[in-house]
Amino acid sequence: MRRITLIIIHCSATPEGRNLDFETCRADHIRHRGFSDIGYHFYLTRDGRIHRGRTLERMGAHCKNHNRHSVGICYEGGLSAGGMPADTRTPEQKASLLALLRELRRVFPRAIIVGHRDLNPQKRCPCFDAVKEYGGL
Known about the structure:
By secondary structure, the protein is of the alpha/beta class. Helices cover 26% and strands 19% of the residues.
């Protein structure tokens, strides 16, 4: 197993009212980014369903300079209907994300939970303060 020090939360930058399901996101990563698979380890759709992406044993492709030692989680959403950054997580996504983070912290107790923006200040992703919300887990 890889040594995991970070759990990084992302958003798909999908506006409210538009869908980006798991298979479409996976296909985009393969076709347009040249990845071998979706870059994330987990993808949460608006209905709260947790989709498995890359296995935890495989390095992700979601945060430059941090993929080797991290787990990547992405939720569908992150933009208002007008295309502005916004916390668009549904109640189902919030519940699923919390459950997933608790399980990952059980497996990787020393891993720190951060948002993509905490590692790359040029990003707004995941469009909420992950450290503030989940730092106490």
